[in-house]
Amino acid sequence: MKNNPQIGIWWDNGKQIVVFPHSPGKADLATGLCDSDDAHNDIWPDAAMQFGLTEFAEYFSVPRGRVLWAPSKRISIIYHGNATAADRLDEIAKVFHLGQWESRTDIHYMMGSSVDDLFDD
Fold first, then answer.
1. Could you name the domain of life of the organism this protein comes from (predicted)?
2. Sequence ranges of the domains in the chain
3. Which residues pair with 17 in a beta bridge?
4. Mind listing the pLDDT tens digit for each residue in 36-84?
5. Is residue 83 within 8 Å of 107, Cβ to Cβ?
6. Residue 74 class from Cβ within 10 Å (0-12 exposed, 13-18 middle, 19+ buried)?
7. Which of 22, 21, 35 shows the shortest CA–CA distance to 71?
8. What is the CA radius of gyration of the chain?
9. Residue 79 contacts by C-beta under 8 Å, 6 or more apart in sequence?
10. pTM for the complete prediction?
11. How far apart are CA 68 and CA 9, in angstroms?
12. How far apart are CA 66 and CA 9, in angstroms?
């Protein structure tokens, strides 16, 4: 029996992937997508512990993203930033049991100078 695709948030430091997956609920009426109610800043203490980081580490110090489900198209979407390599997206897809999926970059998940560029005048 094949596992259903899951949704949720994740972090990936390039060596370890920490995920908080769950089954999709009802799709949002405005977007048509199933998204997790979890927020990175709320779940970070658990993720930091799994990475062996202190409570003082920031949730945005490790590349992160989220997985959504588009039930009408029967495809999952991995949102990520500029610090997540294609091979790591493949690993994230496996952990979330994704069949068909696509990836999209999102400014919320950018790292390094890309973040600084957002705030330059």
1. Bacteria
2. 7-118
3. 12
4. 999 999 999 999 999 999 878 999 999 999 999 999 999 999 999 999 9
5. no
6. exposed
7. 35
8. 14
9. 65, 66, 67, 68, 103, 104, 105, 106, 108, 109
10. 0.90
11. 9
12. 4
Strand ranges (DSSP E) for the chain?
7-12, 17-22, 64-70, 75-80, 101-105
Which residue bears the tokens 């490790």?
62
Burial grade of 119 (CB within 10 A; 0-12, 13-18, 19 or more): exposed
List the structure tokens of 38: 């979890």
For 6-31, the pLDDT digits (tens) are: 999 999 999 999 999 999 999 999 99
Coil, helix or strand at residue 120? coil
- Alpha helices (H) in the chain, listed in sequence order: 40-51, 86-95, 113-119
Say which amino acid occupies 66: R
